[in-house]
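queue> pop job 88
queue> type: inverse folding (structure -> sequence)
queue> payload:
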């Protein structure tokens, strides 16, 4: 009965959980594909252990091993709240054990919370944010990933660690395409010579 209700609410893509979990699903589902999603990558795909949909208020709450994905972007969370209706999702908020992954850019983000209003524009993570990209790691209280501009803005005890150095400040802008950093206010740097 739950699956019939969810089929009308959102597309559930079991293969996304297979991909994210390395070929197996948790939560009792079966898989038919090995690590691939169908379609052109524009669909929002979600798996969860439990879902509650309130059509009147336009809110869906998902909980337990939630996986949300679109194209090469995905994140996991303990709880996800979707605001809006199927054809017009206004915002997606996740809380608890956030793990965001941009496979195309090689970015992995862990945090306490995530908010998305548009996948292509801005993804905001907050609470013990840690970002990894290659040999570079960054930590902050908040990070705003502006995918279309290829930059990450870190605020609140922001720190960037690279192979032989560390840089910190109140605000750090990391320009991904250029591999360039801009530190604003309270700059501290340590390098090995």
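queue> result:
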């Amino acid at each position: 009965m739950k699956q019939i209700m969810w089929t009308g609410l959102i597309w559930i893509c079991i293969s996304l959980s297979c991909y994210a979990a390395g070929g197996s699903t948790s939560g009792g589902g079966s898989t038919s594909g090995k690590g691939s999603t169908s379609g052109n990558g524009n669909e929002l795909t979600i798996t969860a252990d439990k879902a509650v949909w309130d059509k009147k208020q336009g809110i869906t709450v998902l909980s337990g091993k939630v996986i949300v994905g679109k194209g090469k972007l995905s994140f996991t969370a303990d709880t996800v709240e979707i605001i809006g209706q199927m054809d017009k999702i206004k915002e997606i908020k996740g809380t608890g054990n956030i793990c965001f992954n941009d496979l195309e850019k090689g970015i992995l983000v862990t945090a306490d919370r995530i908010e998305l209003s548009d996948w292509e524009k801005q993804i905001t993570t907050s609470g013990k944010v840690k970002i990894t990209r290659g040999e570079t790691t960054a930590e902050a209280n908040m990070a705003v990933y502006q995918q279309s501009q290829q930059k990450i803005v870190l605020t609140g005890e922001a720190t960037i660690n690279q192979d032989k150095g560390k840089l910190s400040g109140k605000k750090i802008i990391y320009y991904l395409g250029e591999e360039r950093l801009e530190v604003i206010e309270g700059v501290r740097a340590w390098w090995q010579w």
